[in-house]
Amino acid sequence: MTKLRIRDHPLQIEVGRYSRTPPNDRICTFCNNHYVEDEVHFVLDCKLYADMRKSLLTSLQLDQKYVRLTRKDLFTHVMSSKNSNVIEQLCKYVSACFKKREETL
To answer: What global pTM score does this model have?
Structure first.
């Protein structure tokens, strides 16, 4: 979770920065829709983590808000939460997503 917050992670948005790839070309390798693989995409949109994300949003009772909030607002909401339950579940989710990402590559 800390790596995600401080941008010390293997997502294309960061990897591409070091190879000087233009930001719009730092595409998610798991989605066929040419989405930039940034933190918001990783946490909220990437198809690879859809099942895990659905469980997370349901357990946090965010599944209803999920439809109403913008992607950025939902990301900001969960990442800035002070609720220990939200933080704990989000940490487990992010860790599991990074593990799945590594195993899939």
So the answer is: 0.87
